[in-house]
Amino acid sequence: MTVEAVSLNRKDPVEAEEVEEKLGEIKLYKIRWVIIGIFVLYAAVSAVQWVQYSIITNIIVRYYGVTSIAVDWTSMISMITYPPLLLPGSYMIDRIGLRYCALIGVVGTAIGTWIKMFSVQPHLFILGFTGQTIVFSSQIFILSLPPKIASIWFGPNEVSTACSIGVFGTQLGTALSFILPPLIVRNHDNLDDIGRDLSYLFYGVGAVITPIVILVFIFFKSEPALPPSIAQAKLRLNKSEFTNKEFLNSYKSLLTNKAFMVLSFAYGMNIGVFAAVCTMLNQFILTYFPNAERDAGIIGLLLVVIGMVGVVVFGVILDKTKKFKEVTIALYVMTTLGIIAFMIALETYSKVLVYISACGLGFFQNAYYAVGFEFGVELSFPQPESTSSGLLICMAQICGVIYTILLGEFLARFGAFWALSLMAFFLSVGTLVTVIIPNRLLRQEALGLTGEKKTFLPKNKNRRH
Fold it and tell me: Which of 4, 129, 251, 364 could form an SS bridge with 334, CB 3.0 to 4.6 Å?
């Protein structure tokens, strides 16, 4: 373990002395990197199943004899299951801690994955859909954890970077979900050959998730023995016994926090557009380039892989500058321009331009995923990170379902250009919404990194004068 040097930069020396006495020692433990690494692995295995069916929609339609809408639902189920599970999931995260929630999440992911291994028969689509539903029901213990893991285990100058690394797992899995199915499952004339390829795909994922369950069980811990930052030390100092009233009050606080709620609407629009476009990507690409299933997979891969670079780059930028609102606005503007560029590139029927525009779109839109998390924590501190990020994801999932349905309708009735134009409109509105978010960085104030002085000591503590 290493010890983090801490300086309480306070204007009131008496208050600073009192806080230092109460906080005690602050340390950073090397195992924090093991914790975040394991999380990246099991988040990736969950996310790798997101568009596992829909990126090869035309093949799945042939093999199982279902409609393309049914295949779209294998992706949309991830958005449908999250909102109703948000409240009980957040309750369990706050009640039983990171370790047990991680175990529930990884075991649920494994069970759903194993069920899909037995679904490779033309009449067993419903079994595969059941496995898919279990996998994504377990995501309630995955998607909202990166900011919580970052805050609980990492120092103040590492939090944004650690959160970005946590999000990296989901992005990595998403990237693989675009490229692996088209590479493994070919559009054979013989359905038995397609079934053989699907077995390779499902058994491969099952083989990966099994040892990860063991790693989570052995290494994953709820929190370090000593806090990694002043903010976490204060939260431990003020910590009281968990109660239902306290849990509900945290949601009440967030839902009445105007700045956070404005961000949640903007976040939902941005990530909702990304989810909708990714779900329908196979159909968009085949509209302009027939028999280009592998190109659809590669384009989806680039959307996410280049986006992972953006996640890390902007995570470091946030740690260095603390310009949360400014970075968020910049990413929103560039994402809007990216979707417009992608739309125009498709109209040129140039694969080269489509690939280039996809890289630009992915770089900025994926980076927004993690930056939005961190901005949400800043606006909502000292509320639990899992609660704030959970609400952001919930809004994104709701928007994702709505936008996917709208995108499908517009694609069928008006064509790809106008369908993507609708998405560009939503992103433009989201940019304007982001501009009006009040720039209150409550966590930075608690750390003494702004001009404001803000403490979170218990109200009933006697102060020395």
Answer: 364
Kindly report, residue by residue over 7-38, the tens digit of the pLDDT.
344 444 444 445 455 556 778 888 889 998 99
Quick check: is 8 in a domain? no
Looking up residue 145, the CATH number of its domain turns out to be 1.20.1250.20
Q: Give me the long-range contacts of 353-360 (CB less than 8 A, separation at least 24).
A: 354/285, 354/288, 354/299, 355/298, 355/299, 355/302, 358/299, 358/302, 358/303, 358/306, 359/302, 359/303, 359/306, 360/334
Could you list the residue range(s) of the whole structural domain that residue 136 is in? 24-235+250-446
Question: Structure pTM?
Answer: 0.69
DSSP single-letter state for residue 462: P
Return d(Cα 331, Cα 335) in angstroms, integer: 6
Domains contained in the chain, number: 1
Give tens-digit pLDDT for 228-283: 877 777 777 766 556 667 777 777 888 888 888 888 899 999 988 988 888 888 88
Q: What is the pLDDT of residues 166-205, one digit of tens each?
A: 877 887 888 888 888 988 998 888 999 999 999 999 999 9
Paired residues of 2 in beta bridges: 28
Domain contains 6: no
Report which of 361, 293, 306, 365 is spatially closest to residue 58, judged by C-alpha positions: 293
Q: What dihedral angle (degrees, nearest 10) is formed by the CA atoms of 30, 33, 34, 40?
A: 170
Question: Are the beta carbons of 162 and 150 closer than 8 angstroms?
Answer: yes
Name which of 418, 21, 2 is nearest 10 in CA terms. Answer: 21
Q: Which two tokens stand for residue 358?
A: 């996809």
Instruction: Tell whether 162 is covered by a domain.
Output: yes
DSSP secondary structure string for all residues of 114-130? HHHHT--STT-HHHHHH
* Cβ(391)–Cβ(69) below 8 Å: no
Return d(Cα 203, Cα 116) in angstroms, integer. 9
